[in-house]
Amino acid sequence: MSDPTRKIIHVDMDAFFASVEQRDAPELKGKPVAVGGSSGRGVVAAASYEARVFGVRSAMPSVTALRRCPDLIFVRPRFEVYKAVSQQIRAIFLDYTDLVEPLSLDEAYLDVTANRLGLPSATATAEEIRARILDTTGLTASAGISYNKFLAKLASDMNKPNGQFVIPVKAGPRVVASLPVGKFHGIGPKTVERMEALGIRTGADLAAWSLPDLQRTFGKAGSWYHGIARAEDHRPVRPNRVRKSSGSETTFHHDLTDPEAIEERVLAMADDVWDWVEKTGQHGRTVTVKAKYADFRIVTRSRTLSAPVADRATLHATARSLIATLYPLRMGLRLVGVTMAGFGAGEGPSGQLDLL
């Protein structure tokens, strides 16, 4: 079982990028706002809650977002501002614990088992942290509190925006059993489709499967699914967690042979990677393009730059040149992917807290 004595908080800023823009431009308050490019191959990096009502979501093509919300206001991202605000928030976290694991600029895990400030509970700690964030930055945050990371992150989505939710030890398995598997972070849309085809629609359905059956069906991920279906997660909060790479790939419905069509998919994968880079502020030096031929043979081409990739255009140019080394193709491609790596190259308890 997960350690029931641990007290984990997951803090997630509410529509972070868009909320910063609405804070700094009062005329945008109460209006549907998207951070990102509005033309060409632009994508939505973040959407305000007013825009989300229309179905606008991050990573959505801008043209699709505009179709859903014709009054959508696009704002160019200001990542230097988002990073500065994120640093303010990080400083608040560190007043409560040294065990802070950032996931991106706008969310982090905190292990507050060691009650540094003598607060009555982890819930009270989360409330105070959220109040300080609002006072310091003018922005709201949501929080989830539980005894492991999986449940804390699950809980932070249950009372958004500007709220918090607690999943205590006895309630963990019951909460997980009642939720659809699509709500579980770490289970993506494709896996959800596969699970539903197998009759796995809720956490209870997932828990009914044995560990050997899950491992046979889902490979290495089967052990993780077996654990979370029982509200178990042994991962510690790692304050110095280093991301080694970030990548994106796609499998085509039909094998592609046209270089222009292949390049279009490669650039789309590069955009996915760059969106992550902008969100986290981490820049790598090594770019890798992966391709899988129609006969399932996989090839990769990599290039390590003299300095971290500084902008989207550089990533596009590097990925484009790498895929070009495969031409002329000996057969069609069924998959392409782009990965960035080389991040950072050149760059005692005073008492136990109760959850409640």
Automatic annotation (TrEMBL):
Organism annotation: Sphingomonas hankookensis
Reactions catalysed according to its record: DNA(n) + a 2'-deoxyribonucleoside 5'-triphosphate = DNA(n+1) + diphosphate
Residues at the catalytic site: E107
Protein name, per record: DNA polymerase IV
Protein location: Cytoplasm
Cofactors named for this entry: Mg(2+)
Domain of life of the organism encoding this protein: Bacteria
Cofactor binding annotation: Binds 2 magnesium ions per subunit.
NCBIfam families for this protein: PRK02406.1
Keyword Transcription (UniProt): no
Keywords in alphabetical order: Cytoplasm, DNA damage, DNA repair, DNA replication, DNA-binding, DNA-directed DNA polymerase, Magnesium, Metal-binding, Mutator protein, Nucleotidyltransferase, Transferase
Keyword Transferase belongs to the record: yes
Role description: Poorly processive, error-prone DNA polymerase involved in untargeted mutagenesis. Copies undamaged DNA at stalled replication forks, which arise in vivo from mismatched or misaligned primer ends. These misaligned primers can be extended by PolIV. Exhibits no 3'-5' exonuclease (proofreading) activity. May be involved in translesional synthesis, in conjunction with the beta clamp from PolIII.
Gene: dinB
Taxonomic lineage: Bacteria, Pseudomonadati, Pseudomonadota, Alphaproteobacteria, Sphingomonadales
Entry EC number(s): 2.7.7.7
